[in-house]
Structure formats: C-alpha cells, structure tokens
Amino acid sequence: MFAGILVGYLLRKQSFIHYTGTLISVAIFLLLFLLGIAVGTNEQIVNNLSVLGVQAFAISSAAVLGSVICAWVVYRFIYKRERP
Questions:
Q1: In angstroms, rounded to a whole number, what is the distance separating the alpha carbons of residues 43 and 38?
Q2: What is the pTM of this model?
Q3: Which pLDDT tens digit goes with each residue over 24-57?
Q4: Which residues, other chains included, contact 45 with Cβ-Cβ below 8 Å and sequence gap of 6+?
Q5: Which positions ≥6 away from 79 have C-beta within 8 Å?
Q6: What is each CA distance from 67 to 62, 71, 77, in whole angstroms?
Q7: Cα dihedral 32/3/22/30 (nearest 10)
Q8: Residue 6, SS3?
C-alpha cells in the first residue's frame, strides 16, 4: 500500500496516471467475473445455492438495516440543528 502511494506521488504529473480509475474499475469487473466462473464451476456451492442465498440475503439485509440505523443516529445527534 505504501509503495503504491509513493509511486503514485512520484508519477502524479504523468498523463497516463489519470486513467487509473478506469483501469481499477476494469480490473474489479474482471476479478468479479472470474470469481463468478469459479463459483459456477464449484459443485458444492451450486448444490447448496438455496441455503447460501438465504444466508447471504439475511446478512446483507442486516448490514443495510444497521447502516440505515447508524446513519439515522449520526444525523439525529450530530448534524441536526438545535431548535431554539
């Protein structure tokens, strides 16, 4: 991480550095595609997809609900203006 920061700092004036955001997005999409292939070829995962899907839905729903509650708490107690 620190080596990347140093290289980025040293090369910050180079024109090709401005395309790193696009390159990162392409790399992430490629990695997700390859992960999907790996999951699709794994018989154990495919056979248990209904159980894993329910668990994934429950975990992601809890994460979203927790984020909404935390955002509401932060808004309520930190950013809401005091009434006179």
A1: 10
A2: 0.54
A3: 999 999 999 999 999 899 999 888 888 888 999 9
A4: 39, 52
A5: none
A6: 9, 6, 15
A7: -20
A8: helix
